[in-house]
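Sequence, C-alpha cells passed on for absentees:
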Amino acid sequence: MQLNITTDYAIRIVYYLALKEETITASELASVLKIPVNYISKITKKLKAAEIVQACEGIKGGYALMKKPGMISLFDIVSSMEVTMKINRCLEPDGFCSRNATDYCNVHKALLNVQKTYEDALKSVTIADLI
C-alpha cells in the first residue's frame, strides 16, 4: 500500500504550519513546499473538515493549525486524506468477503493484526515528534 501524493502534501503542509506557528498563505505553502498552488485549497479543505487546519480570511489570510502539533498524529492527517485506511477489503466496516469467511478466516485474523499495528504506529507519531 502506498499513500497518495495528496496525503504526502497534506503532511508537508501541516508540518510547515507547525514549524511557522503563524498564518501562512497558499502561495507561500505552494512555493516553499513545491505543491501546485491550485492544489492547496483541495488539500486544506479536507484538513479543515478534519479540524486540523483553519482558513483565515482577509488581507493577512491563509492557513493555520487548529490544534497544537502534539495533538495532531500522522493517523489524523492520513485518515483525512485517504479514501480508506484499511489494508484489505475484508477489513472494511461491511466486512465484505467473497467467501463469506471473515468470522473464521485465518488470513482475515492476520490482516486484522497488521491493520492494528499500522494504525497504532501512525497514531503514535505526532507532528510535534517530527519537529
Summary: The chain has one domain: 5-130.
